[in-house]
Amino acid sequence: MRLSRAAALAASVLVGVSVLTACAQNETPAASGTPTSADLCADITTVTDGTLTVGTSSPAFPPYVIDNKPQNGKGFESAVAYAVADQMGFTKDQVTWTFAPFSKLFAPGSKDYDFALNQIAISDKRERAVTFSDPYYEAPNAVLVLKDSAYAGATNVADLKDAKIGVQIGTTGQEQVESIIQPSQQVAVFPDTSGMAQALKNGQIDALVTDLPTTLYLRNVEISNSTVVGTLPSDVPADQWGLVLEKDNPLVSCVNQALGELTSDGTLDQITQQWMADYSKAPELQS
Prior knowledge:
Elements: H1 5-26, H2 37-40, E1 52-56, H3 76-88, E2 95-99, H4 102-105, E3 115-116, H5 124-127, E4 130-139, E5 141-146, E6 165-168, H6 172-181, E7 188-190, H7 193-201, E8 207-211, H8 212-222, E9 226-231, E10 239-246, H9 251-264, H10 267-276
Parallel strand pairs: 1-2, 1-3, 6-7, 6-8
Antiparallel strand pairs: 4-10, 5-8, 5-9
Helix pairs in contact: 3-9, 3-10
């Protein structure tokens, strides 16, 4: 069984963090003119003065959010949001959450949040409408079917050609299914993951495609008698997720500095290992 690209990424992150840490121990202190997040965030303007407003969608699944309550700080993206907020100078009590459908988070126009996160992949198309931070995670999309499905033995994308495949609207999964698998049946599009999962349970679709950690969670918890046949082939670029800001929001410099410091001091890796280590391994479908 081959490991997914997300597993390889996790290993490379560990090595990278070790190198960064070793270098940091041997380097002289940074020049006084080097800006820190404290410098870049000193005079920021937020949607609500004195508060950092974070956007996401509901429902939000583990391992990203636990109990669908991002305000509890539990789950990967909840923890990332609070770590970035802390680095920017906001206490947990100064963080509030607002909710919107997934596609609204990266739609054009003004935003009622300072940044949003919900496994939102960075893409050229989306960057025409919003501004992204540097990436904070990377994952491929994966395929989930029922164990008694005719497609449970799929080992390559051609094996899924005749499957009725479900995707969430506006996701890279939709784009990749249509361009890589090119199914003979029209792709079924759902407004959220819950509807897509229910359709698989009911036999309305043969397979669903979403990011690997979500696919593994659905297999483990939500959809009994299901199996992950694999991630999309490695020649399909894995999605890099970024925090989403209103287009050209100058706050992005502060956010990126905070993410950079969390990466350099190992905090981001610790959060990733705590919440994502069990959601990164799957076989890979062949082209």
